[in-house]
Amino acid sequence: MNKKMILIVADDAAFNRAMSARLTAEGFEPIATVGASEAMIAIRRREPDLIIVDLTFPPDVGHGGGVPWDGFLIINWLRRMGSLTTTPAILVTSTDPTPHAERARSSGFSGLFQKNVDPAIFLGSIHRLLGATTPTAA
User: Fold this and answer.
1) pTM over 0.90, yes/no
2) Per-residue pLDDT reduced to its tens digit, 56-92
3) What is the largest CA-CA distance in the chain?
4) 3.50.30.20, 3.40.50.2300, 3.40.50.80, 3.30.505.50: which CATH number matches 5-130?
5) What secondary structure letter does DSSP report for 21?
6) How many CB atoms lie within 10 A of CB 70?
């Protein structure tokens, strides 16, 4: 049986490591990326069952700067580049998520969480979105 693949798109290495460890413990296959281009490479290898994307990203000064990416732009871009139109996506932020709630809903996000949310609540939401059962203790 293939594990459900969850793509993580966040520039925060500590968040990526912690989220990957939690998702692995829950029986998922996490793939952590740090931006839109890495996410696209991962998607070309295998389409995810769910996407977790950070709200904010710093400007890419190494590639000329420009407009900073955010989770809304990344999801919009990823969905236009492939067949991810129905893939559930969760937006995460280190700040108060309340000001972004309406835009997240209208942009088709399945969830919006502050990064320090209770892991049981966050993982419960992922399990519901994927129709997965929680792992049983051996």
Assistant:
1) no
2) 887 765 556 666 789 999 899 888 877 688 899 999 9
3) 51
4) 3.40.50.2300
5) H
6) 17
Q: Are 42 and 33 in contact (CB under 8 A)?
A: yes
The tokens describing 72, both together, are 């809304």
Cα 92 to chain center, whole Å?
7
Q: Which residue, 39, 71, 68, 69, is CA-closest to 55?
A: 71
- CA distances to 42, 104, 115, 124, 127 from 121, in Å: 27, 18, 11, 5, 10
| pLDDT value for 137 | 39
Rg of the chain over all Cα atoms, to the nearest angstrom: 14
Tell me what pLDDT residue 84 has: 83
Residue 101's SS3 state is helix
